[in-house]
Predict the structure.
Amino acid sequence: MATSSDPIDRILAAEEAEAAPVTVFSRPIETQTTVPSAPTGGDFDREERQALRRVAGLSTELDDVTEVEYRELRLEKVVLIGVYDRGTSTEAENSLKELALLCETAGAQVLDGVVQRLPHPDASTYLGKGKAREVKDLVWQVGADTVVADTELAPSQRRALEDVLKVKVIDRTAVILDIFSQHAKTREGKAQVELAQLQYLLPRLRGWGESMSRQAGGQVGGAGAGMGSRGPGETKIELDRRRINTRMAKLRKQIKGFGPARETKRANRKRTGIPNVAIAGYTNAGKSSLLNRMTQAGVLVEDALFATLDATVRKSVTPTGRAFTLTDTVGFVRNLPHELVEAFRSTLEEVGQADVIVHVVDASHPDPGAQLSTVRGVISDVDASDVPEIVVFNKIDSIDDATVLQLRGIEPAALFVSAHTGEGVDALLERIDSELPRPTIELSVIIPFDRGELVARMHNEAIVRSTDYDERGTLMSVVVDDHLAADLQNFVVAA
């Protein structure tokens, strides 16, 4: 190819060469044509979580190192076990698949899983001695170092299983608590998670060898205290229990101290007359995505279980112009540990204090009916059963028409939306508008021209029937609630 002597031609040829698509691993990278949007708070949170993500296959430790401290540094390889007494094997498999997602969210690699049908779990080894030996062979075959049970294990069952399997054994509750401890960011969230962990740990303390029989006698015992210090003294496990109880009491006092601030914020919202809508639902159902779609909040959205722990409050407007607040809450899961329900009761109060609950369900989940019953069970636990509920099936962009018909059979009055595409969000806002509490007090008022803030409040919080003007001020016929009616008493005129 002949080279052009014209410098302009050479420059244009170089520009065209630079604009050619770049190929990496034989795949062209498309040129970005849109200006990237500014990063939101959720983007920063996601980047922070992924910064220290563990990677499989990079461990350099020796094979004979078995200490727990070293084992926890690498990506744990787990085998799942479960026992079911009623229902079908499909339900048990769905529960085990959910446990697999929990383990992956916690940072483990799931290798295999087994389920056993029993009238009730074995009191000794959970699975039964024969099945426990089969699981031991499976663990050694796949090279796992941890076994996770699908239900909560008694301390005796955990010890018996570890004696048989010769690897670490934990249960579903421990995995959920581990996820919560990783995702907690605020002071209140960290305190709530720590309290739940200590409540779970307290009945499961174990002594290790000589630590069970520490003596405090003689000149040596009790740091050389001598006379008056002789005797058995506190064992190590008793000391741990006392420290845990002291720490739990301190955490309960700390969490109780967060209450006034939350009550003040809630009272401010009530005083302004702005109704509150709480978004509740199963974990990973798309609650935060729906919040972002309705309010452009920019909160963290991640395809992981329990990505959201702290309540987020944002303001939105209905199609008729009524303002309301949306509260994103922590997700629920089947067999949610009661320690977490108690620890997060203060956060779940947002659901109980709401005027409307938007119950989000994952339409693509294999068992959406179980999600509905699980969430409604937790809602009843926080005394929110009498709050109006709007059932919303999210992620309809990933299901077919036959599935939609099945979901309509489960919940005929439900709405179908897609937080990803925005489909059905307008219908949801209209439903929220119809369910919000309406003002009931009809007033005719004359607002002086120097009190424009009251006119603005009535446009935001009340139903304005008519507006007129004369030399006295703004004449308005409105329907208001109790709070606004009290502020307008001095301006009321006869109709």
